[in-house]
Amino acid sequence: MGGDSMGWVIGLSLLAAVLLLFPFTSLWIHVAYRRSGEDDQLTLRFLWLWGLIRFRYRVPMEDISRKGLNVREKMDTNARDKGKTLRDRINWAAVKRARKQWAFLRENIVYLTGVIRRFLSRIVCERFTWYTEIGTGDAAETGVVTGLVWGIKSSFIGVAGSHIRWDRSPDIDVEPRFNEKLLHTDLDCIIRFRIGYAILAVIRLFTRMRRKGSEGKWQNTLSKA
Hints:
Elements: H1 2-21, E1 26-36, E2 39-48, E3 53-59, H2 61-82, H3 86-89, H4 92-120, E4 124-136, H5 139-161, E5 165-166, E6 171-176, E7 181-194, H6 195-211, H7 214-224
Parallel strand pairs: 4-5, 4-6
Antiparallel strand pairs: 1-2, 1-7, 2-3, 4-7
Helix pairs in contact: 4-6, 6-7
InterPro entries: DUF2953 (IPR021338)
Pfam family, one: DUF2953
Protein name: DUF2953 domain-containing protein
């Protein structure tokens, strides 16, 4: 009996220690994306407790492409069916209602942006590499496209660097293939953040929504916008 009691005490103590230290533990997210021709591969890995707990998920890119195509087809169909009645639904009352909803969203989005920025500032990027090989088959076009890709990557690094912290400098490269038609890109990124910062961000968002009139008001406003 004494041994059982001691086991319960040890178990409860370990559980209490885990719950107490949980907000101070870090979560690692490893994003690996590779595109070669028409083949896309996106893999997400989640590591917690310094890699003792691991989870891997491979995103089915083909399903995403099909869903995107289906959504676009539905939108085109709805646009054709409802285009005739669009003018009938636009009136002065609808305009005033839209202005009120936009003012509400703008006020709260500013706050949400602040919360998200605060959370992003706690994220550390341990590794970021992004290599691309590209060619159109025409030397002049390849040169233009290469410069465009360089601009996109540089802009992304600049924007990301203003929000998160780099553990090491990003490594990006674009290699033109002037006499080939190909597209190959390889992106590898590892970020980490403390669980407590994510919990705090969720609490701040939830508190803000309740202060503005509960989550239902947000959902109603968004659905009417």
